[in-house]
Predict the structure.
Amino acid sequence: MRGLLLVLALLVSAASFAAGTHRIVFQVNDNEPARMNLVLNNVANLNKHYQDKGEDAQIEVVAYGPGLTMLNAAASPVKDRVKSFGQNYDNVKFLACGNTMAKIKKKTGKDVPLVEGVKVVPGGVVHITEREEEGWTYLKP
Protein backbone atom coordinates (compact mmCIF):
# COMPACT_ATOMS: atom_id res chain seq x y z
CA MET A 1 0.00 0.00 0.00
CA ARG A 2 2.82 2.43 0.89
CA GLY A 3 4.46 1.71 -2.47
CA LEU A 4 1.23 2.55 -4.26
CA LEU A 5 0.97 5.83 -2.34
CA LEU A 6 4.52 6.71 -3.30
CA VAL A 7 3.82 6.01 -6.98
CA LEU A 8 0.65 8.12 -6.83
CA ALA A 9 2.52 10.96 -5.11
CA LEU A 10 5.20 10.88 -7.80
CA LEU A 11 2.58 10.95 -10.54
CA VAL A 12 0.78 13.89 -8.93
CA SER A 13 4.11 15.67 -8.48
CA ALA A 14 5.08 15.07 -12.11
CA ALA A 15 1.70 16.28 -13.32
CA SER A 16 1.94 19.40 -11.16
CA PHE A 17 5.43 20.19 -12.40
CA ALA A 18 4.42 19.63 -16.01
CA ALA A 19 1.52 22.02 -15.54
CA GLY A 20 3.92 24.67 -14.20
CA THR A 21 2.44 24.72 -10.71
CA HIS A 22 4.91 24.57 -7.87
CA ARG A 23 3.59 23.49 -4.48
CA ILE A 24 5.67 24.22 -1.40
CA VAL A 25 4.84 23.64 2.27
CA PHE A 26 6.93 25.23 5.03
CA GLN A 27 7.13 23.99 8.60
CA VAL A 28 7.45 26.31 11.59
CA ASN A 29 7.73 24.48 14.91
CA ASP A 30 9.87 26.71 17.07
CA ASN A 31 9.38 30.10 18.66
CA GLU A 32 12.36 31.92 17.18
CA PRO A 33 11.65 35.29 15.52
CA ALA A 34 14.73 34.94 13.29
CA ARG A 35 13.45 31.62 11.96
CA MET A 36 9.96 33.05 11.42
CA ASN A 37 11.43 35.93 9.42
CA LEU A 38 13.60 33.49 7.46
CA VAL A 39 10.48 31.51 6.49
CA LEU A 40 8.69 34.69 5.42
CA ASN A 41 11.74 35.79 3.41
CA ASN A 42 11.85 32.38 1.72
CA VAL A 43 8.14 32.60 0.90
CA ALA A 44 8.58 36.07 -0.61
CA ASN A 45 11.62 35.02 -2.63
CA LEU A 46 9.98 31.86 -3.98
CA ASN A 47 6.83 33.74 -4.85
CA LYS A 48 8.76 36.45 -6.71
CA HIS A 49 10.93 33.90 -8.52
CA TYR A 50 7.98 31.96 -9.90
CA GLN A 51 5.96 35.09 -10.71
CA ASP A 52 8.92 36.49 -12.65
CA LYS A 53 9.05 33.24 -14.64
CA GLY A 54 5.30 33.37 -15.27
CA GLU A 55 4.78 30.15 -13.32
CA ASP A 56 2.19 29.39 -10.66
CA ALA A 57 3.06 28.51 -7.09
CA GLN A 58 1.00 27.46 -4.12
CA ILE A 59 2.71 28.06 -0.80
CA GLU A 60 1.60 27.02 2.67
CA VAL A 61 3.19 27.84 6.01
CA VAL A 62 2.15 25.37 8.72
CA ALA A 63 2.82 26.32 12.33
CA TYR A 64 2.54 23.93 15.27
CA GLY A 65 3.94 23.44 18.75
CA PRO A 66 5.96 26.46 19.88
CA GLY A 67 5.89 27.68 16.26
CA LEU A 68 2.20 28.54 16.64
CA THR A 69 3.40 31.79 18.23
CA MET A 70 4.10 32.97 14.67
CA LEU A 71 0.35 33.01 13.96
CA ASN A 72 -0.84 34.16 17.40
CA ALA A 73 -2.29 37.66 17.02
CA ALA A 74 -1.49 38.48 20.66
CA ALA A 75 2.10 37.21 20.70
CA SER A 76 3.57 36.99 17.19
CA PRO A 77 6.72 39.01 16.56
CA VAL A 78 5.92 38.85 12.82
CA LYS A 79 2.13 39.32 12.86
CA ASP A 80 2.23 42.41 10.64
CA ARG A 81 4.21 40.54 7.98
CA VAL A 82 1.91 37.51 8.18
CA LYS A 83 -1.13 39.74 7.82
CA SER A 84 0.47 41.57 4.88
CA PHE A 85 1.27 38.30 3.08
CA GLY A 86 -2.30 37.17 3.58
CA GLN A 87 -3.63 40.40 2.10
CA ASN A 88 -1.20 40.62 -0.82
CA TYR A 89 -0.69 37.04 -2.00
CA ASP A 90 -3.66 34.86 -2.96
CA ASN A 91 -1.37 31.86 -3.36
CA VAL A 92 0.10 31.94 0.17
CA LYS A 93 -1.75 30.36 3.09
CA PHE A 94 -0.91 30.32 6.77
CA LEU A 95 -2.19 27.29 8.66
CA ALA A 96 -2.36 26.78 12.43
CA CYS A 97 -2.34 23.35 14.06
CA GLY A 98 -5.66 22.52 15.69
CA ASN A 99 -4.00 20.00 18.02
CA THR A 100 -1.63 22.66 19.38
CA MET A 101 -4.49 25.12 19.77
CA ALA A 102 -6.55 22.55 21.70
CA LYS A 103 -3.62 21.83 24.03
CA ILE A 104 -3.11 25.53 24.71
CA LYS A 105 -6.81 26.01 25.39
CA LYS A 106 -6.85 23.04 27.77
CA LYS A 107 -3.85 24.43 29.64
CA THR A 108 -4.87 28.11 29.74
CA GLY A 109 -8.63 27.96 29.35
CA LYS A 110 -8.39 30.45 26.48
CA ASP A 111 -8.57 30.23 22.69
CA VAL A 112 -5.50 31.27 20.72
CA PRO A 113 -6.30 34.48 18.83
CA LEU A 114 -5.04 34.03 15.28
CA VAL A 115 -3.73 36.64 12.88
CA GLU A 116 -6.40 37.66 10.37
CA GLY A 117 -6.67 35.21 7.48
CA VAL A 118 -5.02 32.25 9.21
CA LYS A 119 -6.85 28.94 8.77
CA VAL A 120 -6.81 25.97 11.14
CA VAL A 121 -5.95 22.41 10.10
CA PRO A 122 -6.72 19.47 12.42
CA GLY A 123 -3.04 18.57 12.83
CA GLY A 124 0.02 20.40 11.54
CA VAL A 125 2.23 17.32 11.22
CA VAL A 126 -0.58 15.39 9.57
CA HIS A 127 -1.16 18.21 7.09
CA ILE A 128 2.52 18.38 6.16
CA THR A 129 2.67 14.59 5.79
CA GLU A 130 -0.35 14.59 3.48
CA ARG A 131 1.11 17.42 1.40
CA GLU A 132 4.33 15.46 0.97
CA GLU A 133 2.34 12.41 -0.09
CA GLU A 134 0.60 14.62 -2.66
CA GLY A 135 3.97 15.62 -4.10
CA TRP A 136 4.44 19.03 -2.43
CA THR A 137 7.98 20.19 -1.72
CA TYR A 138 8.64 20.31 2.03
CA LEU A 139 10.93 22.97 3.50
CA LYS A 140 12.01 23.64 7.07
CA PRO A 141 14.44 26.55 7.09
Strands lie at 21-28, 56-63, 92-97, 119-121, 137-139. Helices lie at 2-18, 33-52, 79-88, 98-108, 124-133. The first strand starts at residue 21 and ends at 28. The longest helix spans residues 33-52.
